[in-house]
Amino acid sequence: MNVSQDEADRVLRLRSRERETHACYPCRKRKVKCDGYNPCRTCIRRKHPHICSYQLRGRGGPLSPVAARGSVGNVRSPEGSVGQNLDVDAEAGPHRPAEASDVRPDDASKNYVYSGDNSVVSILRLRASDANDSVAREVGSVLGLQNTFNSYPFMDSKTPHERWRSLLGILPQRTEVLKFFHYYRVTAYPFNPILADMDRFESDLCTYLNAHANGDLRDAEKITQRWATDKSIGHIALLLATLAAGAHYSDIEYPQRLELSTDFARRSFHALRLANFLFRPSLDIIQALLILGNTLQNMGQSDAAWALLGTTIRLAQTMGLHTERSTVHWPEYVRTKARALWSTIVWQDSLLCLCYDRPPIVSVTGWPLGTSYIERQGLSYTENMHFICRDLRVSGIAAADRAIEYLQHIDSVHQKAQPHLHSRENCTTLQQHLEHLALKMHTSFCVSVACRPAMKQAQTQPPHSDILRSRAKGSLIDASRAFLDFQALSVVPLRSWSMVHTVLSSTLLLCMWEETRNDPECRDLQQKVIDVFSSSDSRPDDGGVAEPDQQWLSARHIRALVTLRSALDREGDRSMENENAATGSNAVPFDGNFESYLEMPNAFDISPVTYLDSIMNVPMFDFTQENGFL
Length: 630
Known about the structure:
Elements: H1 5-18, H2 25-30, H3 41-45, H4 65-72, H5 88-92, H6 120-127, H7 133-142, H8 160-168, H9 174-188, H10 198-213, H11 230-248, H12 254-274, H13 283-298, H14 302-319, H15 332-356, H16 371-374, H17 381-395, H18 403-415, H19 419-422, H20 430-455, H21 465-489, H22 492-495, H23 497-512, H24 520-535, H25 555-571, H26 574-583, H27 608-616
Helix pairs in contact: 9-11, 11-12, 11-13, 12-13, 13-14, 13-15, 14-15, 15-17, 17-18, 17-20, 18-20, 20-21, 20-23, 21-23, 21-24, 23-24, 23-25, 23-27, 24-25
């Protein structure tokens, strides 16, 4: 039998690799059995899992391929793409037994990031032979496609003890957790379920409270290794983010509520820095950033929320959450969580894009829908929202000729909804009533945006303009009615930026559109909405004196409310309109303190969409002042 030299060398290399050590460094050092996980059971039993490493190269030789695969957590998919690790050991938790199929990454695995099939990294890894496999593993570093900072470089905490003391200074206290997480769980989460696994999170929350009670998080001089890791600090950042959202929806008076919510958000951001979020993202970090961004929106800081969302999306893409192919070898429960989290990102991006009429960032093509999923009946509130926001990406409703197609998608999804979502007559509990009204508001807003091209004053109307105008009127009325009914039952619509934006934009358009501004029903809805905002958060407590408190609304929302009230007053004052026409002035009369209001054009001289745009999208910066340093 003739054997080539290349074949002989290949067999020898394989035999040589079989003799390489598969144990972690502590087990090799002690000459004890190692199961190859990270951390292995031996290190866990000996209570030093933090030093269980397969990267330390002792006298036993180089790192074995099996151990390397276990430590990096990147498995080559059939298509050749390489998946980013997901801190799966943190997701499994103490109550979930380890399985042989689980990926068990350590901190070193976070040097690996998602790369598409056409990237040089993926191509070299796909074609790497046994001889140059080590080169393929290092190619990302060679090409400068990896982060190298193991700690966040833009802060003062340099040593582990400084980092530990900084962490102890921001930890949530037991009373804070018990009070404000309840508000998040009951009030905020059901209508914006950013947490991908609430059961898992609540279990981890109990673990944190037990550790806090046991004194594991008190001694500034003694580091508790279990809580000093990046993934543990990332979980603390997520907990603080939920408390920030919970404080916003609490029953505390506005000034203290704003102060508490801002403080929790500040501490959460600091925990994210301690966890090195920008260089080592994880599932907990992505969720924390999403909740913080949503909280910023609800505090009226939508521009900052938009900017933060862009960073969050990029970090999620770094992990490969945007595509199913990068998760093909992850444990099933992690894949499910990753898919849910990416759908939530699509949800957040879609609503902000509609409000600002800005181009979307995310894509839904990486997670195709199966036939069984499309044909499902009895869709929940969350599933309806995911479908609606997904259709925004697929249909592209910015184009007038796609509006009818999108409306058909909306109607189709609505027919598959649970009975209480389909009709309020089927609601039997308070939560069902709230879910019905929340979905009605979001759906009406999306429909109104799709129909806006038909509302513009133009010589040529888009196709099916009669249908679009009819649907537009109905959606504006439905959004206003749903808000009025919703706020009578809950504080959610008055504390949620997207719902405030929906009702104000709908009411403004009803006020300005020629088909609705003189309609008695529409004018009645307008006045009721104004009355709600005029009295919101200004009701006296028992025995106390109330002070006006509406500043949780953003400046542009306050401006929209003032503009709306003045426009309604002006509608009944034709003499003032004639006087403006005689003098050539287009100013809308208003005697308040909003100076920028004086620059507003006449509401009835331009299209309602253009006027709405000028009210809601006030420029954030004055770019005319960019020529000088001061």
